[in-house]
Design a protein that fits this description.
The complex is a heterodimer. Chain A is an alpha/beta fold. Chain A contains eight helices and ten strands. In chain B, helix 1 crosses helix 9 (302-343), helix 9 packs antiparallel against helix 10 and helix 10 packs antiparallel against helix 11 (398-416). The chains are: A alpha/beta, B alpha+beta. The structure holds adenosine-5'-triphosphate (ATP) and magnesium ion (MG).
Chain lengths: 238, 834
Amino acid sequence: MARKLTVEQLIPVNGNDQPIIQASNLTREVETGGERLTILQDINLQVSAGESIAVVGASGSGKSTLLGLLAGLDVPTRGTVFLDGEDIFKLDEDERASLRGRLLGFMFQSFQLLPSLTALENVMLPLELSGADNARDVAHNWLARVGLEKRVRHYPRQLSGGEQQRVAIARAFVTHPKMLFADEPTGNLDATTGAQIIDLMFQINREQGTTLVLVTHDKSLSARCSRVIELVAGRAVD
Amino acid sequence: MNMIRLSLRMLLRDWRAGELYILTLALVIAVSSVATVSFFSDRVQKALVLESNQLLGGDLLITSDNPVPPSYAEHANQIGLRTTHLAKFPSMVSFGDNSLLTSIKAVAPGYPLRGELKLTNPPTEENVAQSVRIAQGIPKPGTVWVGEKVIDALKVTLGDKVEVGAAELTVVSIVESEPDHSVGFVSMNPRLLMNEKDLAATRLIQPGSRISYQLLVAGEEPQVKEFRYWIKDRLSPGERVVSIQEARPEIRSALDRAGKFLNLAALASVVVAAAAIALAIRRFIQRHLDGCAVMRCLGATESDLLRLYSYYFIVLGLVASLSGCVLAVLTQEFLSYWLEELIGVTLPLPSSLPAIQGMLTGMVLLLGFALPPLLNLRQVPALRVIRRDLELVNMHSLAGYGFGVGILSILFIWKAGSFKLGIMIMLGFLLAVIFFGLFGWLLIRLFLLTRSPGSGPWSYGLANIRRRAIPSLVQATALGLGLMALLTLTLTRNDLLQDWQARLPENAPNRFLVNVQPDQQEKLMVFFDGYAIPRPKVFPMVRGRLLKINDRAVSLEDYPDPRAKQLINREFNLSWTDTLQADNEIVAGHWWREEAVSSEHELSMEEGFAETLGLKLGDRLSFYTGGGSFSATITSLRTVDWDTFHVNFFAVVRPGLLDNYPASYITSFYLPPDKIHIMQELTRIFPNFLVIDVASVIERVQSMIGQVTHAIEFVFLFTLLAGFAVMYAAIASTQDERIYEAAIFRTLGAKKQQLARAWAVEFAVLGALAGSFAAAGASVLGYLIGKYALHITYSPSPWIGVIGILVSVIGVTAFGLIGTRVTLSQPPLQVLRK
Ligand SMILES: Nc1ncnc2c1ncn2[C@@H]1O[C@H](COP(=O)(O)OP(=O)(O)OP(=O)(O)O)[C@@H](O)[C@H]1O
Ligand SMILES: [Mg+2]
């Protein structure tokens, strides 16, 4: 049976050379008031395992849109995304969900903790969803790791923004994800607290060897990443 | 994945966080009101049946022309029923030279199985007031208890021996009243009660003597039913089963109506609670949107979320329904205790069916209204974690609510016990929802157009409604629905009670006089005048035997139905009148027509009677009366309102037709209790009169109405409670937005007062909207229910609109402001940081 081989398939597979994130011609158009608006155009991106990428750009340039597509939270108008070798838009929504559960961790500007769950329970949630049995202990260890062992029983509203984002860090890393997607994780924090959070995030990221995709406005933050991608009106510029 | 554990944990967390209070509250109210109403009406209805069975002396009565086969009583005893038997016959009783035709009842131990036999002492010099006591047991062999009339007519005193047939029996007591005194209007005064052991000695039991044998049966309802079923096919000709419903149609209609109303009331609380639950679910979904998005983000699949929330709601439903049932058991116990105190009746224990009904109601309500939105919830886009504006696609899908409504309909048909009534109510509410929705949408569009430029509380309040168009619509519709149920209940309740009272006023006729001769009419009127009793209407009556139907001779063999046989066998009472009585209604054919050809005589027949005998319009009937025979054609069928206790006839003809036949007259009148003594005088002056005393029947019906009134008042309270839950849920459903909005407004410098005023306007407008929906809906629904279900004429009053809107505006505004007060006094930062 003759089969066409692509260029990628001819390159010898060798752990680090295989990009863990690969986006090709990623385009997102939206329909507003009968008008077609291209909010993201022909993005091509390859990220190797362990790399850290900063996505920067003006407000409204399409950073969150790109992040959402890379993480499979949204579907593109055109283009493909491979995560760890898997073509995620060939999967259905549920398969993407379990892939996210297996491979990805998230941090958001507005923390996105469940208000009715305690800090501990929030961290336990991804473990419980994936059916781990020692969720409580693991989650507890992670909260200790981010310096919140005294606050495990507190509800999000009883925590400061910085503390909430620490809980979010613990929740993001608790499943040992291969990739971490963070959308302006310091956007709601003051400079000092933001810096502390970022330090913590990079530290754990290094230890775990996690690939990081970080959306930020902050120049000093993007400087700490191995690569910066700048978006202008939905296009990547070098 | 251990979803059950996770959902239990989430449930507990949400409960602790106070997320579920409103939903649970609505559910508990729904379940406990349904179950309490069912428990309670179950008990009250059982009590009412028992109560009315006293009029029969038992729960069932088997009458026969021959001694009742002992196998009947044996079987009844076997399945745990109590029995006794008796024989009734007319005979002469004499004392010295005086003798009197007396109605004799020979009873066996156990009589009466239901109700009480009351004895009285003769008034003495020192003790003028007669003292009434309840008889213990029956007359001992060799003794008799007699009615006062026997004492008067025969001039006997206690201790004298009277002759009954060949036996000499001692009079030892005076009977004041017997429970089964007036069944079937055959009670002929005077009366004598003897022990059946003396029956043989009287030698009155002989072939051909007119004796009616009766077997009385009483016990628990299921066994009575079972017995009834058992005996149905075993009855031989001449035997008949009678229960109170058949014996006294007026009691049956009172019971029917009471039952229907209680059920309607229960259903009304279900509708109200359903509205509350739908609202609470809406809020629940809103609060869980973010959580679902995050869980989708963290890897939960759709089916994970569906299972998670299914377990969640099943557990919540079970716990809430169970608590509702427990609450219902407690409430109904308290209620029954209170009612027993009030009316002096011991209520029988309820069956467990209401608990099952309550549980089912709770689960069906919760799942019916929660599942459809939940099916949407699992589709929440994960992208919502980044883009907050992504809402659920069809949060208010009609299909979703349609499912809940469909489930409710099934519940309704089941609870209303009638497909027609259930469907009618459901369709009514459905149409109401559609109408409310459309009309409300139009009104809100109107507000949109009339954008006022001002900045006072009015324009802010209206702007709020505009902004929250859909939630406002949902709120107003749910509130309107709840209020509509309340109003409908109030309206029909009052009409029902008034109607009952109008049917049976204090001075409803309680004595019938039969066998009044034509020349006695005037004398009778003068007699009434003498005692200041208003002259009653007198009806002529000719007795006739039905000979032929359409020229075919009537034969008993043609009528397998024992009741029909009995009717054919008896003489008909024919009457004439030129106007239709007020409590009669023509249902087929027409009343006397001017142009009618006199060669063919017209006859009007009571509908049920015609049905029993298989008669229809156009049938030609031939009668034989004392003075010859005549024929007439059925030209109309009438319904008769038997519960009015007025004189009514099965067959009526036009005046003139019966002029040449011997007629007697019949009348009914109200005898006030303080004039009882005039009856002695009356029977003395008119010894030929047959007096029928229905005072005890009327008293029973009146006291039943009293009991039902209390029950209704209470059931009503529950619906009211459910109404409050709806209000609460409605206000709470926009609470989150309001809290947030208040914080922002106050950060921008708005004063508490300003916000409160704007909200007051918003609530008042919502209230007015809901109130006018409710008033319009209730008027229509009340009319329909009155007409088709309760058979009373209901005339909507303009006050409903005024009261409905007023109550709604005040209620919603007050509730709304109280509910949001906390919001207003919180420092903005605390709110915003949430
Ligand atoms: N579904 C949508 N419909 C219409 N417009 C959209 C949609 N999604 C995104 N946009 C628009 O696309 C543009 C890019 O949005 P995006 O959220 O990616 O910007 P961003 O770079 O993250 O901005 P910020 O730094 O403010 O977060 C914006 O102008 C936004 O309004
Ligand atoms: Mg963004």
